[in-house]
Amino acid sequence: MDAATDLSLFPLTTGINSLGHLTIAGHDLVELTQTYTSPLYIYDGATIRAQLSRLQNLLKQYYPGPATVAYASKAYFAQTFATKLAAMGAGSDVVSLGEIHVAQKAGFPADVIHLHGNNKTEAELRAALEWNIQAIVVDSLDELAFLETLAAEHGHPARIWLRITPDLNVNTHPHIETSHSDSKFGLHIQNGEAAEAIRRALASPWFKLAGLHTHLGSQIFEAEPYRQAIGMLFEVARANDYIPEEISPGGGWGVRYTDTDSSDDAEPWVRTVAEAVQEACNTYNWSLPRLVLEPGRWLVARAGVAVYTVGTQKTTPTGTHIVAIDGGLADNPRVALYGAHYTARVVQRAAAPPSEKVRVVGKFCESGDVLIPEILLPPVERGDLLATPASGAYQLSMASNYNFAARPPALWLEEGSVEVMQCCEQPDQPGWWVYEKK
Q: Which helix (H) or strand (E) holds 16?
């Protein structure tokens, strides 16, 4: 496929219309931006449904026991978005009181909700106890003792998982690696915390220890570390006379952001995880536990596209041609945080061959506000639109009002319909959310 017409990083419904404009679900991105302003975030419903269905079908193919897909809400959550995911039959991994409330209002059943976090507040723990969710995922011995007190006050045992840190290193950026021996997350195997937590939880009348959980990090493209981690979970369980009813290897499987990235098909991940659980159960003659996957990025990144408007251009004394856009660091801090890589397409000339090497920068007062350090694009002019694919995860959810910027609107697209999920915030008018029509 010609690079100019390769849209494999974009949502499944992406196309190029007779005007040469980029479209998603049949909607012209030029027209959408004229209506809903820029920067603009777009989510394609068909892509999210396809990603969720792919995981569910892989679980049916490789895992003969019960299984659940629970969306990691921190990737992106909004009320309309959450309601749609709940209607698709997904579960949800939440990490804050706000996410708990959104999930409740969205109609998620309590028995598919897991509360994560390395420092959960009393309000978050009490909300989870009152909702009687599937699992509060205990992250430390300190939290275990605190939750035991709250559960006793509540008068009902807390249903918990223990987050076990296997002290493994995986091949990803250090800022999104969570399973190493110096991690702030979880109960480490290496120092005996994991074993002690299992013993304490089993001994307490105020806990129902339902399962074990681990999470290796994000943007992982190698399945073997999951096999190792699952084996270690089962080993620590067996050593402490505990048979888990539920097991979760978390999420973290990688997605493609550029043409040079590895394949992000989830088949190796799901197959390896399913095989590892079955092998361990066969070894110990245990019944298969419920297997819970917690993807966030993999479910929604490809479904999302960020659209920006080109403004100023200049060439530096060193010869770098700079193209500035009307967004950047405030709506997408991933590049500054951990060197994330992106590509882009000129919306009005979506099939035009790239010919000019440029650096795409944001509008914010930081030298680190660079969206794409180097990319080949067709010649661009002020007012042209740039569409950045794979923008559905960890962008809007980490957006800020830096420089008093307005966080962008977000749309849910279906063939023939557009739904505003998140309006353009006006930070100079606290509490007011509007979208502008040009």
A: strand 14-16
Tokens of 384: 């042209």
Return the bridge partners of 162, or none: 138, 212
Candidates 177, 172, 272; CA nearest to 215 is 177
Token couple for 28? 């012209």
* pLDDT tens-digit map of 362-397: 999 999 999 999 999 999 999 999 999 999 999 999
Strands, sheet with 14-16, edge to edge from the N-terminal-most edge strand:
14-16, 22-24, 27-28
The answer to whether residue 423 is catalytic is no
Task: Report helix, strand or coil for 160.
Answer: strand
Question: Among the options 281, 365, 423, 424, which is catalytic?
Answer: 365
User: What is d(CA 172, CA 273) in angstroms, rounded to the nearest whole number?
Assistant: 19
- Helices 224-239/193-203 angle, 10° precision: 50
Angstrom distance (rounded) from CA 118 to CA 87: 29
* Domains of the chain, start order: 14-37+303-434 (2.40.37.10), 46-300 (3.20.20.10)
- As a residue count, the chain comes to 438
pLDDT digits (tens, 9 = 90+) for 305-332: 999 999 999 999 999 999 999 999 999 9
CB 329 within 8 A of CB 402: yes
Contact 369, 279 (CB under 8 A): no
Contact 364, 328 (CB under 8 A): yes
Model confidence, pTM: 0.93
267-284 vs 224-239: helix axis angle to the nearest 10? 30
Element housing 138 (H / E): strand 135-138
Both tokens of residue 138? 């205990």
Cβ(269)–Cβ(226) under 8 Å?
yes
With contact defined as beta carbons under 8 Å apart, do 161 and 114 qualify? yes
The Cα–Cα gap between 314 and 291 comes to: 53
